[in-house]
């Protein structure tokens, strides 16, 4: 049965892939946060395990291809590993149930190792499942087409890639929302069980959908495991070549021809084709090393940016969906508009040229990311180094004051209700301060711990000059676009301050509170209680990633007078500046990924396709490992420099690949196969003729 010229079975395969990718990307979207907040691991461990898991998911396809080709066939492999996969997702969901070990019902698990063990088992099973299925599904889809449906097959790979991205797009939007819900039996927590449970349910759906289509599939019988044969053939050729290394043996045309003593011509010819393509794969992992940093580095970059898009507030981790949205738009555009235009211009845009362009674009995307990072770095405050201290002076009074840092370091004048920026000092040189205001003066010895910021509150009253030095205790800009807020009480009485649900406690006259962390990009409701009378006000919007000192000068039922002093400026570089790098990287992905799958398929004999599919996915695994190595080995303190490093590495690799591609000659596997068939036929005829002649000769005797 067919539909729009496509085999009907294709629709089941595409739906299955959609559900499977939804399940995988959905789980992956919340994984790092689950490690960090639920299993209570630090950032480095979480990131390391995350990248290791992704690498593992792309290493297991080799196993899947082995099982499919030599033992179960693609259909049964997909079904049985989907069952394994679903079990893994369920285990993952169970591992995140807080009430599992929370016997004292305090809202946090009592026995973390149980959860760690369960989730690691779950992840390993998932990696087995997703990896095992991966090389089979695309190839199984390709199997459904007849020889003459080349055009439909090409279109199928585009649709297939689209379904992958539709699945990943929806799940990257939906799963974090599920995670944000509150759920639990005895105490309410972030809802990880739901965030992992929905992917599990979808995986089960994928399985059911796939089985329903069973009657329609064209199932190619497994033709023995080709990978083992290929490996043996290569191994034997190398061994044999090594044995005959002396000059007296004649050279052979290709090093694989040394296997001809033991293996037939056809296998050797096919292995040559596979090796030719696999050789081209060597430079590809570098592309994935850059591509997969969207989830790690680029998201961290977004946390230092301003996500205010007018009506909506974008969270840093939601920027990743830009890639999936763009892919869905770009694949049809590139397929239907860009490639035909290039063809019209009489340019032969071969698959390998497309891949080269993809690599170049990915490097450019990282250059763009580095440029954005440089802009961000300009807005980041300079915090004191180990032997330094910084002091900010706030004049809370109505008279101007002059502060001298002794011994003779510098003198600063501050007018009424004004403040200075943070003034840097070498901690060891600063011993005391002298404050003069009007006709009064005061001296104060100070000893600072070093490596920190301090705030000096100064106020002249009838009783004399008041001065208090507060420790800021902030050494970095607030993470994830949160804001730090503290209050200074500039009233004669003690007050109690609450912001939203957070109480800052009692503040005595002219004292300051500690900083508290609040989500950014909104206005806050502040209530001040003074002598059992409450006044309230709504703060101005403090942006993202800022630190403010709010000075309360007056607070009665009729009026409130507050001053905002900016300690750390908010993120000023807008998240929209990430759009160019996402756009460039998505263009890179469209020309690189879609083409790569298709190219692998077109250059391999029919029975070798799973081998190449696995090889392609292997490049992704190696790419993730490269991230771990480069990020670990390069001791670059500047993030922009790391981006430039990755871009430079990829450019070098891109040039190497271009040279390799230049020397590559395209082949048509079908022609090679036909030629081999022809030769075999002739050989058989020859043998028959020989046999007949032999018989004739025998009869004459």
From TrEMBL:
<keyword id="KW-0472">Membrane</keyword>
<keyword id="KW-0812">Transmembrane</keyword>
<feature type="transmembrane region" description="Helical">
    <location>
        <begin position="610"/>
        <end position="631"/>
    </location>
</feature>
<feature type="transmembrane region" description="Helical">
    <location>
        <begin position="354"/>
        <end position="374"/>
    </location>
</feature>
<feature type="transmembrane region" description="Helical">
    <location>
        <begin position="273"/>
        <end position="291"/>
    </location>
</feature>
<keyword id="KW-0653">Protein transport</keyword>
<feature type="transmembrane region" description="Helical">
    <location>
        <begin position="643"/>
        <end position="664"/>
    </location>
</feature>
<feature type="compositionally biased region" description="Basic and acidic residues">
    <location>
        <begin position="681"/>
        <end position="701"/>
    </location>
</feature>
<comment type="function">
    <text>Electrogenic proton-coupled amino-acid transporter that transports oligopeptides of 2 to 4 amino acids with a preference for dipeptides. Transports neutral and monovalently charged peptides with a proton to peptide stoichiometry of 1:1 or 2:1. Primarily responsible for the absorption of dietary di- and tripeptides from the small intestinal lumen. Mediates transepithelial transport of muramyl and N-formylated bacterial dipeptides contributing to recognition of pathogenic bacteria by the mucosal immune system.</text>
</comment>
<dbReference type="GO" id="GO:0015031">
    <property type="term" value="P:protein transport"/>
</dbReference>
<dbReference type="GO" id="GO:0016324">
    <property type="term" value="C:apical plasma membrane"/>
</dbReference>
<dbReference type="InterPro" id="IPR000109">
    <property type="entry name" value="POT_fam"/>
</dbReference>
<keyword id="KW-0813">Transport</keyword>
<protein>
    <recommendedName>
        <fullName>Solute carrier family 15 member 1</fullName>
    </recommendedName>
</protein>
<feature type="transmembrane region" description="Helical">
    <location>
        <begin position="112"/>
        <end position="133"/>
    </location>
</feature>
<keyword id="KW-1133">Transmembrane helix</keyword>
<keyword id="KW-0571">Peptide transport</keyword>
<feature type="region of interest" description="Disordered">
    <location>
        <begin position="678"/>
        <end position="701"/>
    </location>
</feature>
<feature type="transmembrane region" description="Helical">
    <location>
        <begin position="75"/>
        <end position="92"/>
    </location>
</feature>
<feature type="transmembrane region" description="Helical">
    <location>
        <begin position="48"/>
        <end position="68"/>
    </location>
</feature>
<dbReference type="Pfam" id="PF00854">
    <property type="entry name" value="PTR2"/>
</dbReference>
<dbReference type="GO" id="GO:0015293">
    <property type="term" value="F:symporter activity"/>
</dbReference>
<feature type="transmembrane region" description="Helical">
    <location>
        <begin position="154"/>
        <end position="174"/>
    </location>
</feature>
<comment type="subunit">
    <text>Interacts (via extracellular domain region) with trypsin.</text>
</comment>
<keyword id="KW-0325">Glycoprotein</keyword>
<keyword id="KW-1003">Cell membrane</keyword>
<keyword id="KW-0769">Symport</keyword>
<dbReference type="InterPro" id="IPR036259">
    <property type="entry name" value="MFS_trans_sf"/>
</dbReference>
<comment type="similarity">
    <text>Belongs to the major facilitator superfamily. Proton-dependent oligopeptide transporter (POT/PTR) (TC 2.A.17) family.</text>
</comment>
<dbReference type="InterPro" id="IPR004768">
    <property type="entry name" value="Oligopep_transport"/>
</dbReference>
<feature type="transmembrane region" description="Helical">
    <location>
        <begin position="194"/>
        <end position="213"/>
    </location>
</feature>
<dbReference type="GO" id="GO:0035673">
    <property type="term" value="F:oligopeptide transmembrane transporter activity"/>
</dbReference>
<feature type="transmembrane region" description="Helical">
    <location>
        <begin position="324"/>
        <end position="342"/>
    </location>
</feature>
<dbReference type="InterPro" id="IPR018456">
    <property type="entry name" value="PTR2_symporter_CS"/>
</dbReference>
């Amino acid at each position: 049965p067919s539909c729009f010229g496509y085999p009907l079975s294709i629709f089941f395969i595409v739906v299955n892939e959609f559900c499977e990718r939804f399940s995988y990307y959905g789980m992956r979207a919340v994984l790092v946060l689950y490690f960090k907040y639920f299993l209570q691991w630090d950032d480095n461990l979480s990131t390391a395990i995350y990248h290791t898991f992704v690498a593992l998911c792309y290493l297991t396809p080799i196993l899947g291809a082995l099982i499919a080709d030599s033992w179960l066939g693609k259909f049964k492999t997909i079904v049985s590993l989907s069952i394994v996969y679903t079990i893994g997702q369920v285990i993952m969901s169970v591992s995140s149930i807080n009430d599992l070990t929370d016997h004292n019902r305090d809202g946090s698990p009592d026995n973390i190792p149980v959860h760690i063990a369960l989730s690691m088992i779950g992840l390993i099973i998932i990696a087995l499942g997703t990896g095992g299925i991966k090389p089979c599904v695309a190839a199984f889809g390709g199997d459904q087409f007849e020889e003459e449906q080349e055009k439909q097959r090409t279109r199928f790979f585009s649709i297939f890639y689209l379904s992958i991205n539709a699945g990943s797009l929806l799940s990257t939007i939906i799963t974090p929302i599920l995670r944000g819900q509150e759920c639990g039996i005895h105490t309410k927590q972030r809802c990880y069980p739901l965030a992992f449970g929905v992917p599990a349910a979808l995986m089960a759906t994928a399985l059911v959908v796939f089985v329903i289509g069973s009657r329609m599939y064209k199932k190619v019988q497994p033709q023995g495991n080709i990978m083992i044969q290929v490996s043996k053939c290569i191994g034997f050729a190398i061994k044999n070549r090594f044995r005959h290394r002396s000059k007296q043996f004649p050279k052979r045309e290709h090093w694989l021809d040394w296997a001809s003593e033991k293996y037939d011509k056809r296998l050797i010819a096919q292995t040559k084709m596979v090796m030719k393509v696999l050789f081209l794969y060597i430079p590809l992992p570098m592309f994935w090393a850059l591509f997969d940093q969207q989830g790690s580095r680029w998201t961290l970059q977004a946390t230092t940016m301003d996500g205010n898009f007018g009506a909506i507030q974008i969270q840093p981790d939601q920027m990743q969906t830009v890639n999936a949205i763009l892919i869905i738009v770009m694949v049809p555009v590139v397929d239907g508009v860009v490639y035909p235009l290039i063809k019209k211009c009489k340019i032969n845009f071969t698959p390998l040229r497309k891949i080269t362009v993809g690599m170049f674009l990915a490097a450019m995307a990282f250059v763009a990311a580095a440029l954005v990072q440089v802009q961000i770095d300009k807005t980041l405050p300079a915090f004191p180094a180990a032997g330094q201290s910084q002091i900010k002076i706030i004049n809370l009074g109505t008279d101007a004051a002059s502060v001298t840092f002794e011994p003779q370091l510098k003198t600063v004048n501050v007018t009424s209700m004004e403040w200075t920026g943070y003034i840097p000092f070498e901690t060891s040189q600063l011993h005391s301060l002298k404050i003069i205001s009007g006709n009064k003066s005061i001296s104060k010895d100070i000893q600072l711990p070093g490596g920190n910021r301090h705030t000096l509150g100064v106020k002249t009253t009838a009783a004399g000059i008041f001065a208090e030095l507060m420790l800021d205790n902030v050494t970095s800009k607030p993470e994830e676009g949160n804001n730090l807020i503290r209050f200074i009480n500039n009233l004669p009485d003690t007050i109690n301050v609450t912001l939203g649900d957070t109480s800052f406690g009692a503040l005595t006259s002219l004292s300051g509170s500690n900083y508290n962390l609040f989500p950014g990009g909104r206005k806050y409701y502040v209530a001040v209680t003074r002598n059992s009378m409450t006044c309230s006000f709504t703060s101005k919007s403090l942006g993202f990633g800022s630190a403010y000192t709010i000075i309360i000068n007056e607070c009665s039922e009729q009026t409130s007078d507050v001053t905002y002093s900016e300690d750390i400026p908010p993120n000023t570089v807008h998240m929209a500046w990430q759009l160019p790098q996402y756009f460039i990287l998505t263009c890179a992905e469209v020309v690189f990924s879609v083409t790569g799958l298709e190219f692998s398929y077109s250059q391999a004999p029919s029975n070798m396709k799973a081998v190449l599919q696995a090889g392609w996915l292997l490049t992704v695994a190696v790419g993730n490992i490269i991230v771990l190595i480069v990020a670990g080995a390069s001791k670059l303190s500047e993030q922009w420099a790391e981006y430039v490093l990755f871009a430079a590495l990829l450019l070098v690799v891109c040039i190497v690949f271009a040279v390799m591609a230049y020397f590559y000659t395209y082949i048509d596997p079908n022609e090679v196969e036909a030629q081999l068939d022809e030769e075999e036929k002739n050989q058989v005829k020859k043998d028959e003729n020989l046999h007949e002649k032999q018989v004739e000769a025998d009869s004459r005797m």
